[in-house]
Write a structure and sequence with these properties.
This protein has 50 residues and is an all-alpha fold. It has one helix and no strands. The protein has one helix at 8-49. The longest helix is centred in the middle third of the chain and has 42 residues, at 8-49. The radius of gyration is 22 Å and the shape is rod-shaped.
Length: 50
């Protein structure tokens, strides 16, 4: 059996990469929700204008 050596730097890089990926995904979800809210407000304003 061969043992693979994983350095602390590789593990740290993996953790940082995972954190950035999760942060990006959650930011996209938040921006998408904000877009839906703005769209619904715009629809309500249009309805009142008619």
């Amino acid at each position: 059996m061969t043992k693979s050596k994983t350095s602390g730097k590789q593990i740290a890089a993996l953790i940082v990469g995972a954190a950035i990926t999760l942060g990006t995904l959650s930011a996209c979800n938040t921006i998408g929700g904000a877009g839906k809210d703005i769209k619904s407000v715009g629809g309500a304003i249009e309805k009142e204008a008619e």
